[in-house]
Write a structure and sequence with these properties.
Blueprint (H helix, E strand, L loop, with lengths): L2 E6 L4 H12 L6 E7 L3 E7 L2 H7 L9 E7 L14 E2 L5 E9 L2 H10 L9 H16 L3 H11 L2 E9 L6 E6 L4 E4 L4 E4 L11 E4 L4 E6 L2 E6 L4 E2 L3 E3 L15 H7 L1 H9 L3 E2 L4 E2 L2 H4 L2 H6 L3 E5 L1 H18 L3 E5 H4 L11 E6 L5 H12 L3 E6 L5 H5 L2 E4 L12 H21 L4 H22 L2 H11 L4 E6 L4 H15 L2 E6 L16 E5 L6 H13 L3 E7 L5 H4 L2 E5 L8 H18 L18
Parallel strand pairs: 18-19, 18-20, 20-21, 21-22, 23-24, 23-25, 25-26, 26-27
Antiparallel strand pairs: 1-4, 1-10, 2-3, 2-4, 5-6, 6-7, 7-8, 8-12, 9-10, 9-11, 11-15, 12-13, 13-14, 16-17
The protein binds fructose -6-phosphate (F6R).
Length: about 600
């Protein structure tokens, strides 16, 4: 959460910083601010979106060759002009932006208050900044040394960018637990929470590691550890184009990303799945195949939508590989005292690869000797680097706050992983294996076909947009899809929604059913079909309104449901990759119909880098 940008070089810094902030706004949009160095330090900040700041400083002197900028997701202190970053130190010489949480800030604040410091904001960032300034004054050292000393006292997560009006061409940056990318140009450097602010300027980037400090000048990038030893920056080539972060004619990123799924799923399968040859090539699995074959248990850890992908995988892996699977919320797992036995494999699933709870849960499992297999979308992200092996989902940059294409990418990867292990273990027949490979290969085409009918979902969404609540029900492989449908609806349309296993409905939720409650059934043709048809009848008998996601050719459900959306036929293991898509569309169109900013729904941020 929170986006940070920086630039130092011959170009004008402000346009680069402000454009970068717009691209990073998905990380938080409570307030925005910039610090520019030109004949002194100039700081402009404001509650609200980047556009609000831009408008409020029209006409000001924004000329500078070094600048930093921040878009905030509030943690300490409400969204306000005062709590917005950058913060300025007591001397007025230093300005700092921060992404993360300084957990021991109260202790540091007390120490500083005892020395006479006062604070304008309620933020942990202002405390850390003055702590750095105090060390510089007290130890008579340079800023770089003061940052190093200060960070050794800090617990929590941070990326900080710090500028000093006495050194106007230098940005000092440091990271622990939150992402930091440095773009290397010719006589210039760019800094960002991800690479999007620098895409049109350079393809050469350095991913800064935890406990590293960067001293960044136009023609110099010095990387050091907190022990003041130099580290050679490892420059990697970016594989991303500007088009990936533009809306490409769609009204919203979320809609664009939903419609990208035929190609993102195809990209995920490409080079891995060869249905004709009957092979799946995944080096991450191959390198760990003996561990997978012998694994007494697989524990999947993730949050939110990624956790739902994990639940689908639980059904698939247990069915195909006969390995017991547990799916854990990372946020719970990290604070429990979980039993991890020798040989257990942890599969960590994350779109961003930066989710704080998932990261810490992995670290904890690693300490106990578990092997970590990461399924991540963002290349080079922290979770990808922390894993012993893994597979990227290759869904491309996901900007809409609600996860859509990353989810189907996760399902595609998890299905391939399960098929590969099952084949190696001999727990799947050759015929079923081959059939599932063919089915997987057909998914992009089927997704494309069902997206052609997106307008039908728009009409359904408009019909039900005034509902106060909604229930999502599914069985088996479609139960996690019901959970996912409910989550999407909540976050994008602010309609209260609950997901349940359809059979569980009788144990409580059925009390909610009346003529005003839309009940969404994920009821594609599978081994539970007759059972879910009975559940639909039970809702209809109580006058509930039924919206069903059914398989083309189903003759029973249209006679029962008020509204039906059909998806192409598929094996029940593959069906979730299809049945989730109308639910993504349903939440999108309901959100739009209700006037919600669907790409940036309230209180949320794309990358949850605080716990
Ligand atoms: C929901 C959503 C979130 C994320 C969750 C985990 O649409 O996007 O629930 O799935 O915050 O994020 P990652 O996958 O980045 O670890």
């Amino acid at each position: 959460m929170c986006g940070i940008v920086g630039y130092t070089g011959p170009k004008e810094a402000y346009p680069i910083v402000i454009t970068g902030l717009k691209r990073l706004e998905y990380r938080g949009y409570d307030s925005t601010g910039v610090a520019l160095l030109n004949n002194g330090l100039k700081v402009y900040k404001k509650k609200g979106r980047v556009a609000d700041l831009e408008e409020s400083i029209l006409g000001k002197d924004l000329h500078a060759h070094t600048g930093i900028g921040h878009t905030r997701w509030a943690t300490h202190g409400e969204p306000s002009d005062t709590n917005a970053h950058p913060h300025v130190s007591t001397s007025g010489k230093l300005a700092m932006i921060h992404n993360g949480i300084i957990e021991n800030y109260a202790q540091l604040k007390k120490e500083l208050t005892n020395k006479g410091y006062t604070f304008k904001s309620e933020t942990d960032t202002e405390v850390l900044l003055n702590f750095i300034e105090e060390i510089r004054k007290n130890n008579q050292c340079d800023l770089e040394e003061a940052v190093r000393v200060a960070l050794k006292r800090v617990s929590g997560a941070y990326v900080i960018l710090l500028v000093d009006e006495d050194n106007p061409d230098t940005i000092i940056a440091a990271r622990k637990g939150s992402p930091l990318v440095i773009g290397v140009g010719k006589g210039e450097h760019f800094l960002g929470s991800d690479a999007s602010p620098m895409l049109e300027y350079t393809k050469e980037v350095v991913y800064v590691n935890d406990y590293e400090l960067a001293i960044v000048r136009p023609d110099e990038l010095i990387l050091k550890n907190l022990g003041n030893e130099k580290i050679t920056p490892f420059v990697t080539k970016l594989d991303m184009e500007l088009a990936a972060i533009e809306k490409g004619g769609y009204d919203h990123f979320m809609l664009k990303e939903i419609f990208e799924q035929p190609s993102t799923i195809h990209d995920c399968l490409r080079g891995r799945l060869d249905a004709l040859a009957g092979t799946i090539t995944m080096s991450g699995v191959e390198n760990n195949i003996e561990h997978f074959k012998k694994a007494p248990r697989i524990i999947i850890i993730a949050c939110g939508t990624s956790w739902h992908a994990g639940l689908v995988a639980e059904y698939i892996i247990e069915e195909l590989c006969r390995i017991p699977v547990e799916v854990e919320y990372a946020s719970e797992f990290r604070y429990r005292n979980p039993v991890i036995n020798k040989g257990d494999i942890i599969i960590a699933i994350s779109q961003s690869g930066e989710t704080a709870d998932t990261l810490v849960a992995i670290e904890k499992a690693k300490e106990q000797g578990a092997i970590i297999f990461g399924i991540v979308n963002v290349v080079g992200s922290s979770i990808a680097r922390l894993s012993n092996g893994g597979a990227y989902t290759h869904a491309g940059m996901e900007i809409g706050v609600a996860s859509t294409k990353a989810f189907t990418g996760q399902l595609a990867v998890l299905t391939m992983v399960a098929l590969k292990i099952a084949r190696e273990k001999g727990t799947i027949s050759e015929e079923r294996y081959r059939n599932l490979l063919l089915e997987l290969q057909d998914v992009p085409e089927k997704v494309e076909a069902l997206l052609k009918n997106a307008d039908e979902i728009r009409l359904i969404a408009e019909k039900y947009k005034d509902a106060k609540d909604a229930l999502f029900l599914g069985r088996g492989y479609n139960f996690p899809i019901a959970l996912e449908g409910a989550l999407k609806l909540k976050e994008i349309s602010y309609i209260h929604a609950e997901g349940y296993p359809a059979a569980e409905m009788k144990h409580g939720p059925i009390a909610l059913v009346d003529e005003n409650l839309p009940v969404v059934f994920v009821a594609t043709k599978d081994s539970y079909h007759e059972k879910i048809v009975s559940n639909i009848q039970e809702i209809k008998a109580r006058k509930g309104m039924v919206i069903a996601i059914a398989t083309e050719g189903d003759e029973t459900i249209p006679g029962l449901a008020d509204d039906v959306f059909f998806v192409p036929p598929a094996d029940e293991i593959i069906a979730p990759m299809l049945s989730c898509i109308p639910l993504q569309l349903l939440s999108y169109y309901m959100g739009v119909a209700k006037g919600v900013d669907v790409d940036k729904p309230r209180n949320l941020a794309k990358s949850v880098t605080v716990e």
